[in-house]
Specification:
Pfam families: zf-RING_2. The protein is mostly helical and about 140 residues long. The protein has a domain of about 60 residues: Zinc/RING finger domain, C3HC4 (zinc finger) (Herpes Virus-1), CATH 3.30.40.10. The chain has four helices and five strands.
């Protein structure tokens, strides 16, 4: 009888230790993913609370066009959760290459200067004159 109680207590303690270990792993993973995704480090001290309308307008903008590749799943804007439709104005965040409806991401960036998906800073560093010349030679045309 005493042996059964001792075994039960030991199993209970082992179970609690396993649960604590799992909890620590999950919390650690959530913390790591919040501070760096795909090699992009998000540091809240380096990101101002918002962006000016002038800075937002400098971000690349394009008209969405439907490209049928092997996938039939629709592409959604992560801000409004609506599908992109052909001809809609979309904006690209240059550091992380995430796309959004221009109107949705513009209002988001006026509140928070970070990508809503990966939290990378949406503020792009100023390009040098040489980079501007290189991008125009490649033929990148964004409106």
């Amino acid at each position: 009888m005493v042996m059964e109680i001792v075994v039960s207590v030991v199993l209970l303690l082992v179970g609690i230790a396993v649960l604590v270990f799992i909890h620590v792993c999950i919390v650690g993973r959530a913390f790591r993913s919040r501070n760096g995704i795909n090699g992009v480090i998000f540091n809240p001290r380096n990101v101002n609370k918002s962006m000016s309308k002038e800075d937002i307008k400098k971000l690349p903008c394009f008209d969405y066009s439907v490209e049928i590749k092997g996938s039939s799943s629709p592409v959604d804007c992560a801000v409004c959760l609506e599908n992109f439709k052909a001809g809609e104005k979309c904006r690209l965040l240059p550091k992380c290459n995430h796309n959004f409806h221009a109107q949705c991401i513009d209002s988001w960036l006026q509140k928070t200067a970070a990508c809503p998906i990966c939290r990378a800073s949406a503020k792009s560093p100023l390009k040098t004159e040489q980079e501007n010349n290189n991008s125009s030679e490649v033929g990148l045309e964004m409106t």
